[in-house]
Predict the structure.
Amino acid sequence: MQRAVSQLVAEGLVQTRPGRGNFVVIQRASSTVPADLGWQSAVLGERTISAAGLQELLEVPQAGVIPLTIGYLPEDLQPLPQLAAAAARAARRPGVWGRVPSEGLEGLRTWVARDAGGLRAQDVLITSGGQAALATAFRGLAAPGSPVLFESPTYIGALAAARGAGLRPVPVPADSQGVRPDLLAKAFSSSGARLFYCQPTFANPHGATLAVDRREAVLQIVRSAGAFLIEDDPARDLFLDKEPPPPLASQDHEGHIVYV
C-alpha cells in the first residue's frame, strides 16, 4: 500500500497531508491556447556572469555562536533518533545510490510543482537551497549593472545575492499589507527595471503577507512592465490556523514568475 501511494504521489495523482490523510488531486484543465513566451528573449538579452560570491553569508561563525542566517538547529535540539531512522529507510529505497539528475529527482520535482500549483515537473529545477536558487535567478534574469526592484525592507540574503550578481537594488516601500502597488508601478517606470524580488507570504523581516486585493494588481504591473518577478516563499508552512493564500506563481500563465 505504501509503495502504491508513493507511486501515485510521484505521478501527481495523490497528495499526502501529514496528520490528515491522502487526497486525490483534481487535475486542472490545461489551456488550449499556448502561452506566448517570446517577450522573455527580448528582456533577457545579452549578459555576462560575475564570479563574485556571497562572502558575507559564507563566513564561519565564532566558536559558541549560533548563526541565525541558516535554518539548522543546534545538535542538542535535533531529533537525532528519528532522523537516523528516516535516513536508514531512505537509503534502502530503489535507485537511491544512482546518479541524481542535475535538474532533481522526478518525484521531488512533481511534488514541488503540485505544491506550487499550476506547474509541471519539467518547470521545476531542484537546487541545493534557497540561497543558491536566488543567486541562480538573479544571475540568469538580469545583466550586471541592471536595476532590480526590492520590497523594502527585505531579506538581507536576497540583497547579497543581487549584489553578488552585479545588480543595483532599488527599494519599493511596503506596509502592513505588503508591497504598495502604486509605488511599484512608479519604480518600474522610473528605473527601467525588468526584475522584481518579493516575499508575498510572511516577508522577512517585517512579516507582512501581501493582501489578496493587491495580488492581481502586482501581477498586472509586472506583466505591463514586461518584467520578471522572483517570488521567494520560504515561510508558507508557518500558517497554523488557516490555509495560506496561493502562490502568485499559481496565477502566472505567461512565464513572468520564478518561484523559489
Q: What stands out?
A: The mean pLDDT is 86.
